[in-house]
Design brief:
GO terms for molecular function: DNA binding; DNA-binding transcription factor activity. InterPro entries: Cro/C1-type_HTH, Cupin_2, Lambda_DNA-bd_dom_sf, RmlC-like_jellyroll, RmlC_Cupin_sf, TransReg_Diox_bact_type. By secondary structure, this protein is an alpha+beta fold. It has two domains: about 60 residues, lambda repressor-like DNA-binding domains (434 Repressor (Amino-terminal Domain), Orthogonal Bundle), CATH 1.10.260; about 100 residues, Jelly Rolls. The chain contains five helices and ten strands. It has a six-stranded antiparallel β-sheet with strand order 1-2-3-10-5-8. Strands 4-9-6-7 form a four-stranded antiparallel β-sheet, with no helix packed on it.
């Protein structure tokens, strides 16, 4: 099975969850996994084990085969076009007030690529977190303080930052205007 194919599982889980009007917490409660793990699976930040997939299928009341039915389907085009405003908006469990618009998520070779536009309202602070990715950030609008380990970097419009996401990182918008980041995640495979 090609790595790019596995991203379809997370997208299918999200689609089924939303069709059923369920939020992350409801599915996680019914599947006995954390909402954070479910979010990472949906965003292809981690690969679920077969028992976890089984639990999710039971929570969504669908056969396990339905979660993986698109894997191996090669009927897709060789390009992806996302029109302005058509990205899927998401407030992640760990977002603490940030709004993510996921505009692209696909697999590439030994990594998985995810591209998001992140809106950071004035006064929002997100506590440090880490993930299993390399991150590239472009400040499209405004400014934000970005903590990486013990360092705090003051990022301004037009700045680009690239770093190892496994280092705890935080952000803080201390200004009175919204900041907008263009984020590219290169997620590592295990």
């Amino acid at each position: 099975m090609r790595n790019v194919e596995l991203g379809k599982v997370g997208r299918k889980i999200r689609q089924l969850r939303k069709e059923r009007g369920m939020n992350l917490q409801e599915v996680s409660d019914k599947s006995d996994i954390t909402a954070g793990l479910l979010s990472r699976i949906e965003n292809f930040r981690t690969l679920p084990s077969l028992p976890v997939l089984h639990n999710i299928s039971m929570a969504l009341n669908v056969p396990l085969a339905e979660l993986v039915d698109l894997v191996g389907n090669n009927g897709e085009s060789n390009y992806i076009l996302v029109r302005k405003g058509q990205g899927e908006k998401e407030e992640r469990e760990d977002s603490q007030g940030l709004l993510y618009e996921n505009i692209l998520s696909t697999g590439l070779a030994e990594t998985n690529l995810q591209v998001s536009v992140v809106s950071i309202p004035p006064g929002v602070y997100r506590k440090p977190l880490s993930n299993d990715s390399m991150e590239l950030i472009f400040v499209a609008h405004g400014s934000v303080d970005y903590g990486i380990g013990d360092n705090v970097l003051q990022l301004q419009q037009g700045d680009i930052l690239f770093f190892d996401g496994s280092i705890p990182h935080s952000l803080n918008n201390t200004t009175s205007t919204e900041a907008v980041l263009f984020k590219v995640y290169l997620l590592r495979r295990r």
